[in-house]
Amino acid sequence: MKIRERLVDNVAILELSGKLLGGSAGSEEFRVAIKSLLEKGINKVVVDVSEVKRMNSTGLGVLISVLTSLRGNEGDLKLAAINEVMEGILVMTKLDTIFETYETAEGAAQSF
Q1: pLDDT digits 0-9 by tens, 4-51
Q2: Rounded (5°) CA angle 11-87-97
Q3: What share of the chain is helix, strand, coil (3-state, %, to 5)?
Q4: Residue 56: enclosing H or E segment and its boundaries?
């Protein structure tokens, strides 16, 4: 998995591409990126998942863990550019009620 990071005001936008699977280097990379943001005082994060091609239950667990970590630091995580694969997974697991989703990363960033 690849992660591209950019800042809009005080909101981090992380663009993920590839596979979000547990146990892979990408999942750990994602956690490290969040930890680094928190250390910089950035606790508002948008994750653009338009280029995520595959995700398993452990990948979902990573998203939930990151959400919990950010909320524990008075922040939040919002998902943007949900593709069909991601939407199906979120609806099937009822996580669409937990994560706020937006059509664009910029729209999600503005919602903070």
Answers
A1: 999 998 999 999 988 887 666 567 888 899 999 999 999 999 999 999
A2: 70
A3: 45, 35, 25
A4: none
| Residue-wise pLDDT tens digits, 58-97 | 888 889 999 999 999 999 999 999 988 788 888 999 999 9
Q: Give the residues across from 2 on adjacent strands.
A: 17
d(CA 107, CA 39): 25
How crowded is residue 77: how many other Cβ atoms within 10 Å of its Cβ? 24
- Write down the CATH superfamily of domain 2-110: STAS domain (3.30.750.24)
Which tokens hold the place of 78? 């919002």
Greatest extent of the chain over all pairs of C-alpha atoms, in Å:
35
Q: List the domain boundaries for the chain.
A: 2-110
